[in-house]
Amino acid sequence: MTYSDVEAGGGAKAPHLSWRIWLLTAVGLFKSLMGTGLLSMPKAMHDTGVLLFPVLLMSFSALAQIGCVLITRTIEMVGDADTDPGRLGAFACGAFGKWLAIGASVLDSWGAAVAFLRTVYDTALPMLEDAAGVDEHGNGNATDGGEVPSWMKPTPVICALTLAVFPMTLFTQIKFLDWVNSLGSVSLFACLLALFVHAAGHHPSLHGVPAARVNDDALLALSVLSFTYDGLQLTCFPFYRDLPPPKDGQSRSGALARICVAANLMGALFNFVIAIVAFATFRDGIKDNVLNNLPSAGSPLIATVKVSFAVCVLLTIPVTVFEAVHLIREHVLGGKNTLVWNLVVSGIMMGSAALAASLVPNIYQAFAYVGATSSLCWTVIIPPLFFIKSVEKLYPSGEEGTALVEPGRTLPPKPSKCAIYGSWVMLILGALSIPLFVYIAAKKASS
C-alpha cells in the first residue's frame, strides 16, 4: 500500500502531506538507520572516546542529512520523480555517473550481504561453543585436545547459511519478504532491550574512561559510522517518489528534508544511548558485536532473542541482494530475466559474499570495509557530484530554463553559490578520505 492509498482510500484524489504520511515516512527513514551497524556502536565509542564519539556521530548524521537534501533537490531540478540512482547519474554525468551510481549501489548491497552473513555467524558462534563445551579460546572438553571443531570454522558455517537462503534470491518479485524487514527491526529492539536489562544489574559506570582517542582504531570507527548512515541517501529515492505534495505548497524535497531531520535525530539519539549504556557496562571488554557480551548460557530468554535476531538478519539477505541483482540484470544484461541468468548472477553475488564473509575477521571489520568504500561514496561523493553537474546542465548561464527542460515545466530557483561551493568542498574531502579509510581498514585486517 502506498502513502496515497493511506490518505485517499485507494486514490480517489491526490492527497497532501498529512501527519500520518509524515509519521510513516519518518519511521521508514528511521528504520533505514537502525540496521546491524548498531551492534558495533559501543565498540566505536570505545575506540574513539566517550566525548569524541557523539561529535563524530552527529557529524555523520549531518553529512547524511546534507546528502539527502542534495539528492532530493537534484531530483526536483531534473523533474523526474520516478528516477533511480542509475537514471539520475546518467542525467548528471552521462555514462560515468550511471555506472558510478550502479556500481556503488551493487557494491553496497553486496557489502551488506557480507556484513549480514558475518553478523549471523558471530552471533551464533558463542552459542555453538556453549553447546559444544568450548570457550572462546578453543579450550573445552567437547573435542580432542580442546580444539574448536572444524564445523564451527567460518567457512563451513557461512557456506551452509548461504545455501539456506540462496533459493530465495532467485525470485524476481520479492515483495512477500518485505515483512522480514519489520520483523528484523522488532528482533533488534528485543536484543537491545535484553542489553538494557542486563546493564541494569551491573551498575554501568563511565568513571576513568578516556574522553577521546586518536589512532588507527578511531579511524576505523569512522568507517563503521559511515556504514551505519549510508542507508538514508539510498532510501530518498523511493520515499521521494511516494511522497505527495505538502499542504503549504512547499516542494517535496523540502518536505522530505524536514522529515529526514526528525528521523536523523532519532537515529543519532538511539545510537548514542545504546553505545553509552553498553560501553559503560562492559568497558574494555566490549566486543565487536555487542550481543556477544550478553551471556546466552543459562539464559533461555537471551538465547532465544539472539536466535530470532540471527534468523531475521539471515532472511534479510535476499531482500538486500535483490536490488543489486535487479540492477545487474537491467543495466548489464540488457533486461534478461531468465532462471539461468538469475542463477548465474545470484550465484556470483552470494558465492563471493560468502567467501568475503569467511575471510573478514569480524563484523566490525566487515562494516569498516563497506563503510570505507560504497557507503562513503553514497555519503560524500554521489550526492554533491550529481547536484553540481545537474546545476551546470540546467543553469548554464544562470537562466531559469534550458533546452533540457520539458515544455510547460518551470525550473525551481537556481541553488545558491553557498550550496554549490559547499558541495565542492564535500566532494573534494570525500574523494581524499576514501583512500585513507580503505588503507586503515586493510592495515587493521592485516594486523
Number of strands: 0
> Average pLDDT across residues?
78
SS content category:
mainly alpha
Low-confidence stretches: 1-15, 141-146
Shape descriptor: globular
Instruction: Evaluate the radius of gyration.
Output: 23 Å
Helix content: 55-70%
In DSSP terms (H or I, runs of 4 or more residues), the helix count works out at 15
Which assembly state applies to the chains in this document? single chain
Order of helix and strand elements from N to C terminus: HHHHHHHHHHHHHHH
> Which range does the strand content fall in?
under 5%
Measured distance between first and last alpha carbons? 49 Å
Largest sheet: none
Properties at a glance:
447 residues, mainly alpha, 0% strand
Q: What is this structure, in a nutshell?
A:
With 447 residues, the protein is mainly α. It contains 15 helices and no strands.
Structure description:
The structure is a single chain. With 447 residues, this protein is mostly helical. The chain has helices at residues 3-8, 19-33, 41-48, 52-78, 85-132, 154-165, 178-200, 216-229, 231-242, 252-282, 300-332, 339-359, 363-380, 382-394, 417-446. The relative contact order is 0.18.
